[in-house]
Each structure stands twice: as structure tokens, then as C-alpha cells.
Amino acid sequence: MSMILQRLRNIASNYLGVIVHGLIVVLLTPIIVRELGASIYAVWVIVQTLGYYLGFLDLGIVDAQVQRHSVLTARNQTASLKTLHGTVLVLFLAAGAIAVVLAVTVALLPSAALLDIPTDARSLYSTAVPLIGFAVMFAFVEAAADGVFEGHQRYDLMNAIGIGVAVIGAIATYGALELGYGLLGLVSIRVAESALGAAAKWTTVRRTLPSTSWPKLGFDLESWRAIRGFSLWNSLNDIVTEGTAQLDKLLIPILLASALVTPYSLIVTVAAMIFVVAEPITATLFPLAASRHGKGDMVSLAVVLERGCKLVNMVTLPTTIVLLCFGTAILDLWIGTEYTSADPRVLWFTVVNFFLSTYFWSALAILMGSGLVKRIFWTSLLEVAIVLGLILALTPSLGLAGLALAGLIGNALIGFVFFVTGACALSGVRLTPFLWRTLLRPVLGGFPALALGLWLTRNIELGSWIVTGSGVAATGLVALVGVASLTTSRWQRARYAATIRRVLASGPARSG
What we know:
By secondary structure, this protein is mainly alpha-helical.
């Protein structure tokens, strides 16, 4: 299979996973919110956020595992893969055990009072937090298998398992809520879902991937030395970048009130649709960048950077425009105004912030694939300091809007000044023409759709899914055409069309 067809297969399977997971979120979130109520749903968000932070005990190993796997494969040193994956699995088992211990410790400490957990929900909270620790432990084991799939660029297998497990988990979640198990039922299912995913993925690795992929269980010092620099710096970077992205859900109950966690988390869930449509593309960039850098091919690295940004913009800009225009209406119809009432600026700042983040992901993939995680860490640490300072300055007067604005300002400042500039310098691309081709032109292409969407929201009554959906479809279609027309050249459009024809033609040939 050619590289283009393989990448299309990976992206397609990623999108299939996104669609299924998105449908699960769309269908289950209103049920969960209404069954738990606003206050207990806030507790559920806080418990998940604590589990998210326990996930940083992975020490950035998965990305290091994928990067090392790609380098070893590019250098035809596949005999070292068994010890690499075995070392990673041992490290993850140790991290999982620590996660459980820390979760129990957090439950025993007076964290419920600090996080403004309602008094009548504190016993539930104290039981749910240790359970989430076990979910993190099994998720670590599953992540070690994900590193093997990503290293081989077999996203199709990884996503097929993930989809099956997610559907089973969704059905179980609905059943638990119908039977009245509430918050503890949700957490217990999360534990079972992680365990099932880990078992299924390692079984598939054993049966379908090359024998060099099966880990030789044990701690290999040489393998650890090969990944530890990347791993540890990547871990620190994750803490200060991704950790900051979730910190707001803990700062809200501390600085404001836990009751605001529910509307804010629902706004973030809707805005995260931008991440959902971008991640299937950007997830494939990291191993590509690592492979190109491992071969010293800077020309191909520049191609990966520019094409990655353009492809991401073609899916995220229409989504961004739709959410800016119709996000509030979608929230009200989906969940209900009694759960989602918040300052409209919170949605606007969050949506723009998420769009810029996805634009920066391609540059980050280039920097990480080139092993520059140490530079990324110090830059991200600076971003955390800026964002926290802005939060403390803006939140007292602007509330949730100030918190969202602080994240937007910090993200934009660091992303443009350091990440995009660094990736362009590394790959030999001139910065100003690059920004024009990959950002300014696509944004200009989206302006007609933005004008249309704003006109529709002011002139039609968005009181039903049919009317809102029609407005979303019209605005999104105009945005897609506008962005695509200014993002790609005639030659690129012809090349993409030819590739699609090859994919369609290869299906019957293989089946025959």
C-alpha cells in the first residue's frame, strides 16, 4: 500500500472513531446531566478531571515510544522493538499502581472541601476518586498497546477496537443510569471500559502485528536510556500544556463556585468539536515527522508541516464558524437553558482558543517529531505562567469570561511566537508566507460564511433542531467551499481528486 493510501486509511479510521465517539457524547451527555442533576454532574466532571491529572504519571512515554519506534523502523533496527515495548509496559504498570495509591490519598485528604463539593455528595466523591484511579491504571496498560499500533501506523486496528469498546461502554452507561446507579455506576463502567480496551488491544497486537511488536516484558536499561530524555521532557511539557487546558475545571470551584463547573464544562464539550474534527489528521503527523527527521529529510518535513496546517484548517475553520454563530443555540437545544446559562463571551473565547490550538498542533508535531521536547517544555511553562497571571487578573471582574479570555491570550501569544516560528525555522520555511498560506488566506475564505451565519442567527428563530440544523448546514457548506478554495491550489485540488479516485478504484480490486 502506498504512503498516501496508508495515510488516508489512517485518517479515515480516525474519523470513523471520532464520529462514533461524538455520537456517544451527543446522545449520552443530556441523559447524564439530567439523571445526575447540575450539582452531581459537576462532581462527575471534577472526578474525571482528577483522573485526567493522574494520567500525567505516564511520564510522556507513549509519544517517546512512538518516536523511538519510528526511528528504529526507519533505521531497520526492528530487533530492538520487543525490548522497547516491554520496557514501556513495565513502566506503565508501575505508573498505574502509583495512580491508584494517589487516588486513594486524594480521597482521604480534605480535597472535597477545597473543591467546593456539596456536603451531601462528599461520600460519593470519596468513593468515586479511588475508582477513577483504577480506570487510569488500566488506561495506562491500554496506552502501551496504542504506542505499538501508532508506531506501525495501524490506526485502523486501534480505532476498530476503540469503537467497539466505546459502544459497549455507552450501552452499559445508559443501563446503569436507568437502573439508578448514578455517579458510582458511571465511574465503575469507566474502570471496566479501560480494562476491556487494554485486554482487547494487547490480544490484537499478539495476533495481527509482527512478532517484533510483542513486548519482551522487563525493564531494559538501554531502551529506557533511548527514550528517557524525550519521555521526561515530553511529560513535563504535557503537564504544563494539556494540564493547563484542564486546570480551569479545578480553578472554577476554587476561585468562583462549583455550580459554574456544569455550564462551563458543557461549553467546552461543544467547543471541543474543533478538536474532534482535527485530531484524526494531526494524530498521523507525529510519526511522519519523526520518520522524516530520522532520515534527515527536511524538505519532506516542510511538506508535512504545511499540508498538515492546510488540511486541519479545512475541517476546523468551518466548524469554528458554525460554533461561533450557532453554539449557544446548539447548547440550549441539546442540554437545556437551565444547565447551560453563561456569559456568551465564554463560548466565543473558548471556540477561538480551540481553533488556534489545532492550528498549532502541526507545528508541535514537527517539533516533537524532531525531538525538541525540552524546548517545548520551557516554552509551555512560560505559557502556564502567563495564563495563570491573566486568570488571577481577569477572573475577579469578568468571571468565567475572564478565565476563557486568559487561556486565549496565552495560547495565541506562545503559539505564534514560539511554536509556529520554531517549526518554520526547523523545516526551512519562511514564516510570513507560511502564515499567509496556512492561516490568513483560509480565514479570509471563511468570512462570507461567518457573515451568513451571523445574519441567520439574527433573522431566524432558532427554536428547533430542523431550523438550527439548516442554518448550520448552510453556513458550514459555504465555509468549507470558501476555505478550501483559498487554501488549496488548482494543482493540489486535482491531486486530491486523483487520490480519491485511486482509493475508490482500489476497493473493488482488493475485494475481487
